[in-house]
Specification:
alpha+beta, single chain, 29% helix
Length: 213
């Protein structure tokens, strides 16, 4: 669903961002367990300022990631699958989006990192059931136990440029009171160069060293 979607697969865009945080590594790692509830606390200021497409008045009604399905396994890994219409409605209005068939949804809102030109490859690599999941409630954030965050977010843009961000975060212990945050940014190898540039900018602005998230 996330890593084997195209013929050539993913590539890393440059070296990872790295910085030291004065906190125990588990404080960051526990936020990677697909916990939608931390949206209302850890990311509350983003919603109050409208960065998540909501305002202080409608936080509880529109909080992204509060809607969806949590998937976990005994090994501690997890995924958070968020309804596509919820993500879509945060940034633009489309009342009929829920009425679209899965195939139509993918054409309107391809998964993060997939351009319209890469959709045929996506359809070859994923089963019909997987494509339906990607169209209805795609996995967007998750954790690989014990210290890796998977981030495949849509973050639609209104300026006509490519949307989405693909990243892996690792929280490396640097003693009991410090961790090293490493942000690895990815794109599909077969994606247009313009898309790679836009996705790198999206990932840095959203989840980088100075990102909003």
């Amino acid at each position: 669903l996330l890593f084997c979607r195209t013929d050539s697969g993913l590539e890393m865009l440059g070296p990872p961002q790295r910085f030291i945080v004065p906190a125990n590594w588990k404080a960051a790692a526990e936020q990677s367990a697909s916990d939608g509830f931390h949206t209302l606390t850890l990311h509350r200021s983003l919603m109050e300022t409208g960065q998540y497409g909501s305002s202080a008045e409608d936080i509880y009604a529109n909080a992204p990631a509060m809607y969806g399905v949590d998937i976990s396994c005994r090994q501690g890994h997890s995924l958070r699958c968020i309804p596509a219409e919820q993500t879509f409605s945060m940034f633009m209005t489309m009342e009929d989006f829920k009425k679209l068939k899965p195939e139509e949804r993918l054409n309107v809102l391809p998964p993060p990192g997939i351009s319209k030109e890469l959709l045929p490859q996506l359809r070859r690599h994923l089963s019909p059931e997987a494509l339906t999941l990607m169209a209805k409630a795609p996995p967007q954030v998750g954790g690989m136990f014990p210290n890796v965050l998977v981030l495949f977010i849509y973050s639609p843009r209104t300026d006509g440029k490519y949307s989405g961000a693909l990243a892996l975060h690792t929280y490396v212990p640097r003693g009991p009171n410090h961790l090293e945050f490493m942000n690895f940014i990815f794109a599909e190898k077969d994606a247009p160069e313009a898309m790679k540039r836009d996705m790198m900018a999206n990932a840095i602005r959203a989840s980088g060293t100075t990102g909003t998230i």
